[in-house]
Design the sequence.
């Protein structure tokens, strides 16, 4: 589990591709994001929020999430394995840390983890495990110190429930109207709530999640396009190709080739 602890900048986390953070998606590991410069907008569990300097954002593994970085935004993200020995919250947390001592403590822990990751030496694996443990302790203490009552509105609760359904079922090909029916509301009401809470329509949230999954499978894997289409619930490879062309301006094959070239350049 220790090998799964990572520290990256937000740009490194995106691997140089804005869509990797900007489209709704989830991660297999817990993420603790610490913004040290600039501004960003994050949509976590369907709720959009501004994230500024000295904001800590904890995103549990498997949570629908997207993030748009401002031009001057810089931050670090600590990725922690799910199901391991490190205790992370099971619900998203957005903490605005105003105490200088607390700010310095987290920054120092993340910088130490970065040194042990980028310049490994004897016992670095033990050091990373110890630092990850300290970081999660810092987070749990900060949650207690900044505890706020749950004031979610009815619209926020609805959109959060929808976001969880999208994350679970986006690869089934089920249309947005069926999600609305399952939630006991009309598509119009769900769309209005999503627009108010998440800054996007209900259809856009579902489409964005499918597009992220499609691009990830196309750009990082070798599966045939028809197999990817079937995996994501498309009725045919042709329909999938039109979907990709419409949203990216490229065919699936062209997108895959472009991504391979960009990946080589990014690695250098």
Sequence:
């Amino acid at each position: 589990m220790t090998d799964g602890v990572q520290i990256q900048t937000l740009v490194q986390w995106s691997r140089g591709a804005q869509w990797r953070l900007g489209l709704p998606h989830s991660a297999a590991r817990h993420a603790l994001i610490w913004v040290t410069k600039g501004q960003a907008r994050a949509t976590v569990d369907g709720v959009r929020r501004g994230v500024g300097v000295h904001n800590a954002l904890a995103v549990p593994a498997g949570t629908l999430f997207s993030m748009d970085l401002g031009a001057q935004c810089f931050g670090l993200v600590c990725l922690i394995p799910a199901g391991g020995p490190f205790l992370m919250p099971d619900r998203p947390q957005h903490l605005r840390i105003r105490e200088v001592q607390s700010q310095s403590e987290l920054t120092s822990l993340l910088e130490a983890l970065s040194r042990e990751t980028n310049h490994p030496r004897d016992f670095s694996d033990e050091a990373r495990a110890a630092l990850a443990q300290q970081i999660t302790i810092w987070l749990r203490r900060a949650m207690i110190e900044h505890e706020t009552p749950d004031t979610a509105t009815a619209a926020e609760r609805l959109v959060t429930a929808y976001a969880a359904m999208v994350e679970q079922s986006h690869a089934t090909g089920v249309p947005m109207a069926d999600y609305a029916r399952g939630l006991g509301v009309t598509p119009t009401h769900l769309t209005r709530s999503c627009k108010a809470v998440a800054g996007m329509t209900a259809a856009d949230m579902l489409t964005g999640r499918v597009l992220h999954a499609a691009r990830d499978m196309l750009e990082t894997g070798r599966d045939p396009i028809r197999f990817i289409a079937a995996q994501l619930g498309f009725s045919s490879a042709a329909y999938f190709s039109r979907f990709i062309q419409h949203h990216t301006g490229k065919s699936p094959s062209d997108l895959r080739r472009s991504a391979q070239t960009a990946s080589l350049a990014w690695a250098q």
User: Anything to note?
Assistant: The beta strands are 6-9, 29-37, 40-44, 47-51, 55-59, 65-69, 74-81, 93-96.
